[in-house]
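Handout, page 2. Input:
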Amino acid sequence: MGKIKYWLIVGFIILFAIFYIAISDRDSTLSRLKSAGENGDVEAQYALGLMYLYGEILDVDYQQAKIWYEKAADQNDPRAQAKLGVMYANGLGVNQDYQQSKLWYEKAAAQNDVDAQFLLGEMYDDGLGVSQDYQHAKMWYEKAAAQNDERAQVNLAVLYAKGNGVEQDYRQAKSWYEKAAAQNSPDAQFALGILYANANGVEQDYQQAKDWYEKAAEQNFANAQFNLGMLYYKGEGVKQNFRQAREWFEKAASQNQPNAQYNLGQIYYYGQGVTQSYRQAKDWFEKAAEKGHVDAQYNLGVIYENGEGVSQNYQQAKAWYEKAAAQNDERAQVNLAVLYAKGNGVEQDYRQAKSWYEKAAAQNSPDAQFALGILYANANGVEQDYQQAKDWYEKAAEQNFANAQFNLGMLYYKGEGVKQNFRQAREWFEKAASQNQPNAQYNLGQIYYYGQGVTQSYRQAKDWFEKAAEKGHVDAQYNLGVIYENGEGVSQNYQQAKAWYEKAASQNDAQAQFELGVMNELGQGESIDLKQARHYYERSCNNGLKKGCERLKELLYK
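Output:
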């Protein structure tokens, strides 16, 4: 007998009792029902057990429920035996006792009670009061499934999907899920959606996944609503549609589904199909975070640290990062370390920073490994140790972390903690430069300009300086000015030189400002302009360049 049929019978018994109570005096009718029970009427005994157990008509009274179930069970009523098993399993009016629960289930199961068979399967599946035994679980699930119990069919499918007690077999899993889905089980419909989405035992088919998710979602199954939302969010099997995604997320979120709440936060944070709202994002992240959602906890930390939609609050940021870090989130561990390293919301404490970086580094976080390298290179809270710095840079560099590749190159370039080696330096700079790291591109320019471990090439130097300069690297901009002014590897071009000097000068590069002063004084590339020359000399002087001050004085007396 399936779950639905079972509860229809239960409902009929209760409605039968309600009917008689409704058309007559309640107390006298209950008295007659109890009298029938005392005289051995098993249906009356069972009905009274249900009413006391679930608080239907009568107040919940587990002791009374137990008494009436025992009377029916003594007459070998399997329904009552199964209910006694439930009471012992859950400690309802009795001390929780899985052994007693198992004994009652077995009595009912021996009479082919489907609920008892299913519940025995669960006991062995979960190892409740018995040693976990998937074979026994499978046996009992099969007995219940043979009676078309959808719960047992679903759990059998799970055994096959996970390979618990059986050889993993998605084909068998799919077959059992389909049997339960045919009975409109939302769990089975949802699981079939996952099989098709993940290509487990079937060809990946997002349309099929969508169809199954929809069936479960229409029954208000929160996880299916979320997964359906994700199909629209990512555009898998459907045209990407943030509005549709949001609507499904909202349905799931209203049932406190934390992933849906988190994704609604993402939608508002990035303004995906809605007006961007950090405030709305924060509210949704909070709902998910309070349920332990680690990404939501991390994102709340970011929101408070940056003051997005809220007043900047390092204490709140720290609190949320700590929650995520306690779940081993490496990003939160890194951000906590940064708070301690900078003294944001806490007293600056490099020891604490190092501790958090180490936790994240143990999870192979390249950000943390790189940061530890910097601590050792700069002697922040530790003794300066270039060998340690090198070791940490290498770990991050091997994960293609550009800044670590550059810093590792600099150790070889300067000979810090290692023997100076321009070839090694160049190789690491090239790795970082290929990821558009501007400092690495600039340093490659220096290597070719001065011929350090390579054949000197102004042309190569220029090409690397240009890459860095286009990203705003001030030294590269200045060096390009020098190259064009002197005609090194290129035709001499004062206009180009002036253009690059101006870019560097706008970033307050004193040497570039001085060179612009010289060009205007001498009329290089255009007519002499002493006013402009004085302007640039003054700027270079104000930025601390002594010769700019000296040249300015000379011009003032002309």
